[in-house]
């Protein structure tokens, strides 16, 4: 009788393969390598999210054991005029900062992409504010916008114009914070747009130039439409960042004057660490998370319809 050409080990492996799907077997083999990263992700992402959701349903005050109150914190928010005012201020802040960062970032990207002797200097100057700390940014702009001795108002006085209170006037405080936020953050969108410009095929622009199209026409009809995927990323990053902002407001205006710069992020900080209403602050955080998630989904759906990726 001929000996079998299939070894017992081969039979056992084949049998295991039949009992266990290949994908599950590969997952079990990779588990020891995935567990450390998965553990870090659970501890620093999923657990805090679940904890905030739980605290939003309690009367937690950081001083005593929390008691279950259900949806009372959310009902309080819906009935609170300050919450709706803060939401409106945050929306204005987010739209203003995002629009300016996209517009100025694109314009600066075109300048940084131009081949000039000062190209490297310009790129460094545009990106430098991004790496400046929030504390240093607040010190710089508190000095520049000082209504009594600041260089900005002194310059306006030299032109015969009476400068406003900037950060101390309810009519100009939010606009001033928006301008400071744009100065601080426009470097990142500019660099992203620059990377997008350098990744575009040069043949299309060259063909349009040969056909007699001006630089403005090429930019409007060819370059900017091709940058649509980059624009989607820039808008998404900017919106997420602005809705979460509170550092500049904390250091520049502390939500004032008269609540004119009371962003949702600052309201969360104030309720949690000033008034010790951790349950209410957690409810605000959940609302902000739901709002950002909704905006992200809407933006992705719109991008799927209007943006074509190469």
Radius of gyration from CA coordinates? 27 Å
Tally the helices: what do you get?
Answer: 15
Mean pLDDT: 87
Report the helical percentage: over 70%
The arrangement of helices and strands along the chain is HHHHHHHHHHHHHHH
Write a brief caption for the model:
This protein is an all-alpha fold and 310 residues long.
Describe this entry's structure for a reader.
Helices cover 73% and strands 0% of the residues. The protein has 310 residues and is an all-alpha fold. α4 packs antiparallel against α5 (119-131) and α4 packs parallel to α8. Mean pLDDT is 87; it is low at 1-17.
Structural descriptors:
0% strand, mainly alpha, single chain, 310 residues, disordered N terminus
Furnish the topology, listing elements before pairings.
Elements: H1 8-19, H2 22-55, H3 72-78, H4 81-113, H5 119-131, H6 134-144, H7 151-158, H8 173-185, H9 187-198, H10 202-210, H11 215-226, H12 228-243, H13 247-252, H14 264-273, H15 278-306
